[in-house]
Amino acid sequence: MTNSVTKGAHHIGLTVSKLEESASFFTSILGWKEVRRNEEYPAIFVSDGHIMVTLWKNKAEPPEFFDKNRNIGLHHVAFVVSSENDLKMTYEKLKNNGIEIEFAPELLRQGPATHMMCYEPSGIRIEFIWPGN
Fold first, then answer.
1. What tens digit of pLDDT does each residue of 97-119 get?
2. Were 102 and a residue from 17, 20, 117, 133 both cysteine, which residue would form a disulfide, CB within 3.0 to 4.6 Å?
3. Cβ pair 85, 106 in contact under 8 A
4. Can you list the domains of the chain with their CATH numbers?
């Protein structure tokens, strides 16, 4: 195997229909920090200190939503949590804030990894995973 030319992800860019609500999902619910805004695009940049997510406001109305079973593109984005307890607390926080949950924390295959899936306010699938180590 040769050495990879890449060294991980710098940022993920997501087009969203509800810019402020999507940013609030990351900042108010998940505790991320707003890094900056670009009012001209408009866009909001948020980070958990390890990765940045760029939220770009869609231009078309009405927006066209992605179908993970039909379209080519982003199926979901997955974020690591530090512990199984953090995963459970994230689930409760999301549920208490009215975030649509696809499935509650459960074992990934036979475990020990545990994960859950939800939809942020613009409808993008977000997975939270505790690797179990």
1. 999 999 999 999 999 999 999 99
2. 117
3. no
4. 11-60+74-130 (3.10.180.10)
**pLDDT interval class at 70 (50, 70, 90):** confident
Amino acid code (one letter) for 121: P
The CA distance from 122 to 119, in Å, is 8
What does 68-111 look like in DSSP terms, one character per residue? Answer: TTTSSS---EEEE-S-HHHHHHHHHHHHHTTPEEEEEEEESTTS
pTM check: above 0.85? yes
Give the separation between CA 64 and CA 55, rounded to whole angstroms. Answer: 16
Q: What is the DSSP letter of 48?
A: -
Residues 74-85 pLDDT 10s:
899 999 999 999
